[in-house]
Design a protein that fits this description.
The complex is a heterotrimer. Chain A contains 17 helices and 20 strands. Chain A is of the alpha+beta class. In chain A, strand 10 and strand 11 form a beta hairpin. The longest helix of chain A is centred in the N-terminal third of the chain and has 30 residues. Chain A is globular, with a radius of gyration of 27 Å. By secondary structure, chain C is mostly helical. Helix content of chain C is about 75%, strand content about 0%. The chains are: A alpha+beta, B mainly alpha, C mainly alpha.
Chain lengths: ~575, ~300, ~350
């Protein structure tokens, strides 16, 4: 009896010990996390929130009103280093950092930001910028030409992310504290490049101590400094706390020394909240818990339009869907077959089914950019025409059957709809479409494989530019490549290559000529059935009705310039 | 299943109250009457069996019963996208304009069929392994259970991704992945039960009488241990179909336009608050089929578990 | 007892490490380029090559595996490719969040499921049995995001009884962050003496926990019913009846504990399963748990993160199984002899 009793209690005890061991182990691991930012960030966050929490309900309601909450559907921060940042954190970076210029998509003009004016030489190779006075970094140092030069040079030296945009720059000279002179190796629209969504930020390279140049120990120090969740920008807000993996991942507080000043009504705090499910984001918008949701399903948008506490803002974006047709191998190498497949896209049906989240595309370049022309109508759905083209090559409803493959990234219901619709149309043409939904890495890897039989026939993906210029489509997607990177139509047209190589110089010197040239290039692509662009994404943003002054700028995708907004009553 | 081996008492318990020798040779009409009487006393089982028969009929007759059979294949009708239930589409249409009712009908073969295969395969692998480990005990038991633990601990999603990445995403490959992740559950449950029964008096008695171990395991441990496993398995049909849905979340498993219920549920996920019928009806189909198999499984358990029989 | 514990403990450690290593190797073998996740979708070929070297992806597979094990042993679980944070800090915080949620859910499941099963067994063949049986079956097969979303729409958005999502009210975020010690809000809030945070955390846990509890409720109910029916047919129960105990006493005092074996086994299995597979619920309710992390890691081919998650979940599974194997003899005296 005693033996049994003994084993029963010790058994229980040991079982409990086992569970506790797991807990302790996990908790110990947890405590070695980013404690440094946690301590300082918690302190500053507590300090900034303590007054609102200690105050009366009415005052705390007013304080809460001045917080702008952005509901992001993925983790916000991947890389906080302004030289290499190239991911979702861009939605916060533009509240914290500024560039020399910015692009106004409404007027389609490059506007002053940290530079107040600029001139370029007639050959487009020398650009002189006059910088704003009275601007300070969040680190306390003054922003002058030397500091701006150091930032751009570091970004260019590191050359990751979107650093390539500075590729044309040969030399930068800080003639005086307010003047910056760029010498380019070839003509390029540098004012536009300086307004880019990424890699154009002006930041303090001395934030971690010794000036960081992009290489060596001093740079490693700065890289590590950014990793702890600090920022070295000039913008209206500064990072107050960063909790990777948390729901309220990033909090920005106002920077009192901002050159724009804080007169009038502004948000004093910006909070980024990670909400992965669209249905949850919609409910949080309805309950007033978030100020802004960047994307919902078009059906949810329609259902929220009648809510008086919310406003829906719709703006065409610079992002479109490209279907690249394999011009180099497989059945689509035959232009007849390729053109027939291009005629099987039911663009009108797709646009109608996807509701207000897309608009039918005209040509390859989205509206709002130079080179856009609504005379570039694609071919549209034309099964009869497709059948006769196929018959010319022995295929089609009365000819040999054909099997082609298309790859899309998995988990995107819009893409599933496009390919399913294409499949059903192609079936009527005696073509079997094999749809492969893969992870992006796998989809891209397959397209780049050196074994041409492994490559797909139709490659679908979204494309958008790093700065407000259609050059991005042409240099990345249609310029010939020795090893495929993004030219996944494997298109090689020497004439087009020459045009692409010269277009940026043309943009710098003669914008109208560049505009016409872009139209010609697009027509070439359509004639050759290299690509089909069914639609351009239409941004549908949900905001609280009380938020005033919101203008969606497609050049800065998903970015909200919180400083420009007016909090409601 | 003769009564000549083993302890007399357990043989009686096994055959239970329907063991009258003359019953199997009764007339056909009498036999049918007895089946009906048996079912009438168990309305749950009758209900479950009824639904399963309806499902089977639906699976076979789908091409005839479905108003839009093409919608279960390559057809799309983008202008009829997201129509609410009513009129010519009794259960509405999905995003591609396909009739939900037709797709559910054709989906019976796929969803129910493959899921049943997955569960049966998992049972066929898991039960022998668990029985062996539990009946034998000792170091072999330990070793086998650690192997089972390895399979249990391995993330099933990663396994499904690995199989799909090498072989291409499809329902068959997803079925393999799910089976490989599913059998350890049954093995573990079986081992627990077998180990518990191993220590019972009648098992010891059987061993003392010199009956070989394997016979003891099959005749005495298995029938008494299998109850909870059948319970778990019968509840699992819905679970397996929903696992297919979870795999569809990552783009693994059945691909569009296959009318697989789990895939349909996943496709309707973001539409649940605005166009609920897209996910609602496939989900209801899953629950109905699951209910039917649960009731059926419960009936089976009674036949296999002598103690339960004795009390009915 | 202790020998069993030590032996099983060591075995578990080896199993967990082995599974983690297996996951690591398999992920590295999959087609696709993990460097592309790190470098971003627009990286040039040169950048990708650079990053590949940086992440050690250019080395042969066995080399990577050996380095990984060596690092593990020294406490370096690697850096996650998709979050760029140390895997250990990523995973341990989320593990505690999932642990809290799943434990809460299983407590609810046991408190509802077991009595439901008792009810069904007590009134076997009569209406309560059918109702319990049908409810159990429905709960076990309802699509989980459905249930979650419907509850969310009804209880949070329509009735405002419970919050929509999140782990605590947004106005309490600073307090919650400051109080963080175990990453379990119920524990941390009590340790910090913050009752408002405790109540907020509790109300935010309710809906996701109920959704996760749906399947186990059904399972526990059916297993309890089956086990109870079996036990009730045994000799010692007849003796208790003959001695004049009430049916109620017989069930709750004599029959229930020995019948709990399968329920305990199932509990351990469901516990381990739920830690890594509740990503739909986590996404719906904004819980930064292990499930969504695992899914994101798998989508990104993030080998260190996948391996780390796997190891931790495996350890939890094994600990739970071990605990159950040790507790079963306590519940069922028949298992105590024969060196079980």
């Amino acid at each position: 009896m005693t033996h049994l009793q003994h084993s029963r209690t010790s058994g229980l005890r040991l079982g409990v010990l086992a569970c506790v061991a797991v807990l302790v182990f996990a908790a110990c691991g947890g405590s070695t996390s980013t404690t440094a930012p946690a301590a300082s960030a918690a302190a500053s966050e507590a300090a900034s929130q303590a007054p609102s929490q200690a105050a009366s309900p009415a005052a705390s309601a007013a304080a809460t009103n001045q917080t702008f909450t952005y509901a992001s559907h993925t983790q916000v921060v991947t890389d906080l280093d302004p030289a290499t940042s190239y991911s979702n954190e861009v939605i916060a970076m533009h509240d914290v950092y500024e560039s020399l210029t910015y692009y106004d998509a409404v007027t389609k003009k490059v506007m002053p930001a940290l530079a107040t004016s600029w001139t370029s030489s007639p050959d487009g190779k020398t650009w002189t910028f006059t910088l704003r006075t009275g601007v300070t970094f969040h680190t306390g140092r003054v922003m002058d030409a030397a500091a701006a030069k150091a930032a751009i040079e570091r970004t260019k030296t590191i050359n990751q992310g979107a650093g390539y945009i500075w590729g044309a720059v040969d030399n930068i000279v800080a003639k005086d504290p307010q003047t910056l002179v760029f010498t380019l190796s070839y003509a390029a629209p540098l004012d536009l490049i300086a307004s880019a969504n990424y890699a154009a930020y002006i930041y303090d390279t001395q934030a971690a101590g010794a000036p960081a140049t992009g290489t060596g120990a001093s740079d490693a120090a700065l890289v590590a400094w950014f990793k702890t969740g600090k920022d070295a920008g000039t913008g209206p807000y500064t990072i107050a706390s960063w909790k990777p993996g948390d729901e309220f991942e990033l909090t920005l507080n106002k920077y009192d020394g901002y050159w724009g000043g804080w007169q009038g009504s502004h948000y004093t705090q910006v909070v980024f909240r990670v909400v992965p499910e669209v249905t949850t984001a919609a409910q949080l918008a309805q309950s007033g818990d978030v100020s802004y949701v960047d994307r919902l399903t078009p059906q949810l948008i329609t259902s929220l339009k009648s809510d008086p506490d919310l406003q829906i803002v719709e703006t065409p974006s610079f992002q479109n869907l490209v279907a690249l047709l394999n011009t180099a191998s497989g059945p689509l190498k035959d232009p007849n077959v390729r053109k027939a497949v291009a005629k099987a896209f039911d663009v009108n049906g797709i646009v109608s089914a996807l509701g207000g989240s897309v608009v039918a595309a005209k040509g390859v370049i989205p509206p709002g950019l130079i080179g856009y022309s609504d005379s570039l109508t694609g071919t549209g759905l034309d099964l009869a025409g497709a059948a006769s083209l196929l018959a010319a090559s022995g295929y089609g409803p009365n000819g040999k059957p054909l099997t082609i493959t298309t790859t899309i990234v998995s988990g995107d219901t819009d893409l599933q709809l496009v390919t399913t619709s294409l499949k059903s149309n192609l079936a009527k043409l005696n073509i079997n479409l094999d749809i492969q939904a893969l992870q992006w890495q796998a989809q891209w890897g397959e397209a780049k494989s050196s074994d041409v039989t492994k490559r797909q026939d139709v490659f679908l993906m979204y494309w958008w530019p790093d700065y407000a210029d259609p050059f991005s489509w042409f240099i990345s997607l249609f310029h010939s490549e020795s090893t495929p990177n993004f030219n996944l139509a494997y298109y090689s047209n020497p004439k087009l290559d020459a045009e692409i190589d010269g277009i940026q110089a043309l943009e710098a010197t003669n914008r109208d000529a560049a505009d016409a040239e872009y139209v010609t290039m697009q027509q070439q692509l359509i004639d050759d059935a290299v690509v089909v662009v069914p639609y351009v994404q239409n941004y549908q943003r949900v905001l609280q009705a009380s938020v005033g002054g919101f203008v969606d700028n497609p050049a800065y995708a998903q970015v909200v310039f919180a400083y420009d907004l007016t909090p409601g009553p | 299943m003769s009564g000549s081996d083993g302890v007399a008492g357990s043989a009686d318990l096994r055959r239970g109250s329907t063991a009258a020798p003359g019953g199997a040779r009764a007339s056909a009409a009498g036999g049918l009457g007895r089946v009906i009487g048996y079912l009438a006393r168990r309305p749950g089982l009758a209900f479950g069996l009824g639904i399963v028969i309806v499902l089977a009929a639906g699976a076979v007759l789908a091409p005839v019963l479905a108003p839009f059979p093409g919608d279960a294949g390559n057809n799309t009708n983008l202008m009829a996208s997201l129509l609410p239930p009513g009129g010519v589409h009794p259960l509405g249409t999905d995003l591609a304009g396909r009739d939900v009712w037709s797709r559910i009908l054709f989906g019976i073969r796929i969803s129910v069929g493959v899921s049943v295969v997955v569960i049966v395969s998992s049972l066929l692998v898991g039960i022998p392994i668990g029985l062996f480990a539990g009946a034998v005990g000792g170091k072999l038991d330990d070793l086998l259970m650690r192997v089972v633990d390895v399979f249990l601990a391995f993330p099933s999603l990663l396994l499904a991704l690995a199989i799909s990445a090498t072989l291409g995403p499809s329902m068959e490959h997803a079925a393999i992945a799910i089976t490989v992740s599913w059998w350890p559950w049954y093995a573990r449950l079986m081992r627990g039960e077998a180990a518990a029964i191993r220590g019972r008096a009648y098992v010891e008695a059987a061993l003392l009488l010199g009956i070989p171990r394997w016979r003891v395991a099959l005749r005495h441990i298995l029938p008494n241990a299998i109850g909870p496993i059948i319970v778990q398995a019968s509840l699992d049909l819905g679970g397996v179909i929903l696992t297919f849905a979870a795999l569809s979340f990552l783009g693994l498993g059945a691909q569009d336009p296959t009318p697989e219920w789990g895939l349909m549920v996943e496709q309707g996920r973001t539409l649940t608050s605005t166009q609920p019928w897209v996910a609602l009806f496939p989900g209801a189909a899953i629950m109905t089929a699951a209910l039917a198999f649960t009731l059926l499984g419960e009936g089976l358990r009674e036949r296999l578990d002598p103690k339960g029989l004795a009390r009915s | 007892m202790r020998r069993i514990l030590v032996r099983r403990g060591l075995q578990s450690l080896v199993v967990a490490l082995g599974v983690g290593l297996l996951a690591f190797v398999i992920t590295r073998l999959l087609p696709g380029d993990a460097a592309a996740t790190w470098a971003g979708p627009r990286a040039s070929a040169d950048e990708l090559a650079q990053v590949r070297v940086q992440l050690g992806l250019d080395r042969p597979l066995w080399d990577q595996a050996v380095r990984y094990i060596a690092d593990l042993v020294t406490g370096n679980w690697g850096t996650s490719i998709h979050t760029r944070q140390p895997v250990l800090s990523d995973v341990s915080g989320r593990f505690m969040t999932s642990l809290e949620l799943v434990t809460f859910a299983l407590v609810i499941a046991a408190l509802i499921g077991i009595p439901l099963g008792v009810l069904a067994a007590r009134w076997k063949g009569r209406p309560p049995d059918w109702i319990a049986g049908i409810s159990a079956s429905l709960l076990a097969s309802v699509p989980i995001f459905w249930l979650g979303l419907l509850l969310q729409l009804l209880i949070a958005t329509e009735l405002h009884w419970l919050p929509v999502a999140g782990r605590w009210d947004r106005t309490l975020n600073a307090a919650a962050v400051a109080a963080t010690r175990t990453h379990m809000v119920l524990v941390d809030s009590l340790l910090a003496g913050n009752l408002t945070l405790f109540v907020s955390g509790f109300s935010h846990l309710l809906m996701p926990a109920i959704v996760i509890a749906a399947y186990p409720i059904g399972l526990f109910a059916r297993l309890t019913r089956a086990g109870l029916l079996e036990t009730l047919g045994e000799e010692h129960i007849r003796m208790a009846r003959a001695t004049g105990y009430t049916e109620r006493a017989i069930i709750w005092r004599f029959a229930l504990r020995p019948s709990m074996g399968p329920v305990l086994s199932a509990l351990a299995l469901v516990f381990g399963f739920s830690l890594g597979n509740t990503f739909l619920v986590e996404n719906l309710f904004n819980f930064q748990g292990l499930g969504s992390y695992a899914v994101d890691s798998i989508a990104a081919l993030d080998a260190p993160a996948i391996a780390g998650t796997t190891i931790l979940v495996a350890l939890a599974y094994l600990a739970a199984n071990l605990a159950v194997d040790l507790i079963r003899p306590v519940m069922d005296p028949r298992l105590r002899e024969a060196g079980r």
